[in-house]
Amino acid sequence: MAIIHAIGRRKTSVARVYVDLGNGNIKVNERDFKDYFPTGPLQYIVTQAQSAVNAKEVYDITVNVDGGGIKGQAEAVRLAIARALVKVNDEHKPLLRKEGLLTRDPRMVERKKPGQRKARKRFQFSKR
After folding, report:
1. What CATH number did the domain enclosing 8 receive?
2. Do residues 19 and 61 lie in contact, with contact meaning Cβ atoms separated by under 8 Å?
3. pLDDT (tens digit per residue) in 63-105
4. pLDDT of residue 128
5. In which domain, by residue range, is 84 found?
């Protein structure tokens, strides 16, 4: 099997994933994913796509991720891994689609507008 490449995005985070046959190692920015994502919920998010298709110890995954915060990065990695698993085997697609792991979350931070304090918050109005 050739190395499979996929990209996942969430908010301002971008994750580039490279999947190859192996024994289940996940490296994120040259570090073990458990060091990079220290909490249990984030580790669960990263491994969610592999758990859905029962491929936790089949592929070695190398990830380059940058931008955004740690939660957005974890969700970007999840999307990229799910897309890579579909490239490896098309039979994974219905399982991952049912779990909602192939859908890119389009929500982004709304920009600040001129003449306002934040994106929607206005400066205090004074009649006199």
Report:
1. 3.30.230.10
2. yes
3. 999 999 999 999 999 999 999 999 999 999 999 999 999 999 9
4. 85
5. 4-99
Q: Is residue 18 part of a domain?
A: yes
**pTM beyond 0.90:** yes
What three-state secondary structure class fits 46?
helix
Tally of structural domains, the chain: 1
Q: What's the CA gap between 67 and 14, in Å, rounded?
A: 6
Q: Is 40 helix (H, G, I), strand (E, B) or coil?
A: helix
C-alpha radius of gyration, the chain, whole number: 18
Spatial distance between the Cα atoms of 34 and 128, rounded to a whole number of angstroms: 58
Tally: H helices and E strands in the chain: 4, 5
* pLDDT, tens digit, 9 for 90 and up, residues 9-56: 999 999 999 999 999 999 999 999 999 999 999 999 999 999 999 998
Q: Is residue 106 part of a domain?
A: no
Q: Helices 70-88 and 40-52: crossing angle, nearest 10°?
A: 10
